[in-house]
Specification:
Blueprint lengths: L1 H15 L1 H9 L4 H4 L1 H27 L14
Length: 76
């Protein structure tokens, strides 16, 4: 059973964390390079929020959104 858990440890530490180790070593060279993944995720989230707000405005302008407080049975 010990070999099984050591195999899991080897998989995660030595194989699956290689990209994260690369980013850790890259931080010593350039901060912006090491944080590119964070910047990419922030840009994706900002685009998603803008898209969501545009869709909310479209449905609000069309009047199709039910804003009644009894729209759901659990609010009655």
């Amino acid at each position: 059973m010990t070999a099984f858990f050591e195999g899991i440890q080897y998989l995660f530490v030595n194989i699956l964390f290689i990209p994260l180790d690369f980013l850790r070593h890259l931080e010593r060279i350039t901060w912006f390079g090491a944080n590119t993944i964070n910047w990419i995720f922030m840009i994706i989230c900002a685009c998603a929020i803008v898209y969501w707000i545009k869709q909310l405005r479209i449905f609000d302008a069309a009047g199709t959104e039910n804003q009644d407080t009894t729209a759901h049975s659990f609010l009655k």
